[in-house]
Amino acid sequence: MNKNVHHESSRQHVTGSAVYVNDMYDRHNMLIGKVIYSNHPHAKITKINLNGARNIIGIHCILTSKDIPGKNQIGPVFHDEPCLASDIVECIGQAVILLAGDSEEVLHEAVNRIEIKYKALKPILTIDEAKKENCKLAPTRTIERGNISEGFNGSKHIIEGSLTSGAQEHWYLEPQTALSVPQEDGDITVYASSQNPTETQIIVAKVLGLESKNVTCEVKRMGGGFGGKETQANHIAAWSALLAHYAKKPVMMQLFRDDDQKITGKRHPFQSSYKIGFNENGEILAYEVDLNADAGHAADLSMAILERAMLHAENSYFIPNIKITATAWKTNNFSNTAFRGFGGPQGMAVIEHAVDRIAKFLGKDSAEIRLLNFYSPENKAITPYGQLLSNIHLQTIYEKIIVSSDYYKRKKISMFSILHSDLSRKESL
Questions:
Q1: pTM of the predicted protein model
Q2: Residue-level pLDDT at 13
């Protein structure tokens, strides 16, 4: 009996025969779509002149926000992100104009003949700048348990610190891609590289002014997603659908990798500060943490991601007195989005940083500090948000990993290697 479990498309992937969106259609019967985006982080659009590009042979349509037949909106939860900028651009990479043409060469010529003028406005580019302007995406969220003041008063030791985590690119193997094919009676089929075909269907329908039943969205494979195609595949699907709607021909859009990185959001950068109180053994008695996320110019899934960071802020540790605050800040960066872990890594990283500092302060092994503070079945089995935990096996898992990894032996060898390396370096000097 073959016990190996294979991915259903593994043979196609290995042989190169897997069909992605960009492989799906007869090139002779479709157009290529292109987006012109803002090169300003914050500016007012003062002029758009399309006259020089409209009469180029091979250009089938050029669209601005005025040409959208439905709603100029692609925000998946909060409706704060236009499909195409109409008056103000709020980040570098925000879409302004769409084109459909016979070839990349024709599109390149058209882009060079289109004139867009901007009046620069003051941008907010960092969390610190957003704080100064009090530019919150939504009110600050708070989760609190116990008495944080009493917790710190009863702590023999207190450490304060901060942790900054940056953005991260998804780097999916297939860039953002969509193929839209007009059907009878104004219906449209979108072949999308999307993690959420139903949401893509709904947003395309709203932009086109159709009912959802008039839009079919198919996803064959994604070429990787990691969260980057959970909401932001909707953008290119809506753009290609608009072009196909006007051109009455299939339109393929695939972002050039450089454009993809400029246009699409990343893992949310966080700036977090904390204060942690503990006793001589390393038991955590109080923890106060303030999480701050760069949402970018639109909400996307920022609030859900922020709240997920809050729900992971204590990680696997029971902390009797805890206060977690979190704020998503609106900036003039691309709208940051889902990324594997969905806010959890940003929340967990802070408490793990604090635990490492406790261990160093007390001269103990950080693994021992972790074991001491794990949730346990006895009286340490409730989260800061009131969830009662059951089937806690942290201690068992910890003990098995310590043994199976030969942790302490390896650590002694590692420490010996470091010390030996330091001595050798000093002798060479």
A1: 0.93
A2: 84
